[in-house]
Amino acid sequence: MNNLTNQSIINANEQTYLSLLVSVEAGVGMLQIFIAVCDADRQRENIIANYEQELAPNHNIYRVYLDSQEPSLKQAITQQVTLTENAIAIVLGAETLGSFNQNESLKKFFGYLQWTREALRELKMPIILWIPSRIYNQIPKQAPDFWSWRNGVFHFQPELSLVQGDSSINQSLGNIKDNQEGSVFSLEQLEASLAKAIQKWGADSSKTEVLYSQLGTLYTERVESAKSTDRQKELILAQEYLEKAIVLQTKFQKLEALATSLNNLANLYYNQGKYSEAEPLYLDALKMRRRLFTNDHPDVASSLNNLALLYHNQGKYSEAELLYLDALEMRRRLFPGDHPDVASSLNNLALLYDSQGKYSEAEPLYLDVLEMTKRLFTGDHPYVASSLNNLALLYHNQGKYSEAEPLYLDALEMRRRLFTGDYPDVANSLNNLASLYDSQGKYSEAELLYLDALEMTKRLFTGDHPDVASSLNNLAVLYRNQGRYSEAEPLYLDALAMSERTLGANHPNTITVRDNLRHLQQQMTSL
Predict the structure, then answer these.
(1) pLDDT in tens, 403-419
(2) What class is the 3-162 domain?
(3) Considering Cα of 77, then 78, then 79, then 85, what sign does the dihedral take?
(4) Which CATH class is domain 296-357?
(5) Which of 84, 222, 224, 388 has the fewest beta carbons closer than 10 A?
């Protein structure tokens, strides 16, 4: 771990610590379950000591230790905590469960967790449960009910200065590479915490800013990952919260957080096709990060990459290429050897060349990405599936159908293994394979896959959604190619109306559907 990477981890942990502190303070007097994930004993103790000191003047803080033989969360708290008005419980001891052949105690722990919802309702206090990542990774499967109603998850990444010589870290490091996302919250917890924070500190305090930022980021992630239940409403909320965070971050000169919020708001506009609104925000975030980090830094590389993506989608290929190359070179300097960020930059550059028809330049990059992701992620992994899919798209675009088909099939099967049931990536693979068969004139095979993809997207996204509009458009294209104009037209009309409602009239996807409909109607009038 180089000094830059360790400093980035320290900065991320400081933000996570602040988020935990604000969430706990805002949750006093309510039952709030917070999960804190940390793998180093010294690091855990330092964090707890810090927030105990900050909270002590106005709160009654209890360290609660789980019984290794009967690790019941409720039993430990009710036996060791006096139920006062300002109580906060810190639960320790889970880090020893499952080690040194204590598998039976770990099973009991999960069993108690699974059935704590009703048992804990009487405890009107924030509860911070400290666990190592090896236990955290098992909770969704072993205690799904507990997982579904926990309030927030705070990941503290290992810091070099705090893990050297710490034997407790060694068994857990291999399990956390996919869990370094920082803090993970439920909307209900954040909204409740925000309401209490506004009441306690006011709408314009530095502590409230943290919650605005978290809510804006969470709503943005939900919209981008297709988890939102009401996309339009959550888009509006994401924008409002991010804008409030930006105002307060500017006021309190929290420049690193401000750059992140500017970037996140730009992402929100970008995903709506509002490129003219996204560009100045991306530029501001990039300039700010360059001032904050005078040397190479992952955040600067990320800003370069995001601005390049914007120009790429606007068809400004020469501007995009320069930025993609800058991001790639910076990431190679930051992360020598294989690294997901390097693979991402290679992939984006390949996509740029692919979209320009520079297939001979795109292919070796796609192959490099595929090999790198296979080395980085043994077995099935979403990045590997995406790499297979992108290489297949390249061959498809070149008319190399026999080379594209097995890659599409491999990507589809891997995604089905990774994501049981309905999932956006699976629907994407079904659409791509259908498009290949459509290109080959295998219309009956293509129709079945397009229909499967359409039904899956409708189940995934109730009501209007861009992916549903895209699936309607794809099926309409198939019918048009077959001369089934009367079946294609209503699908195009539905796709256009939905795309306009969800993305706006000027989004590139909407323009594509509108052009497709116009061409169809021209064909119909010429008959």
Answers:
(1) 999 999 999 999 999 98
(2) alpha beta
(3) positive
(4) mainly alpha
(5) 84
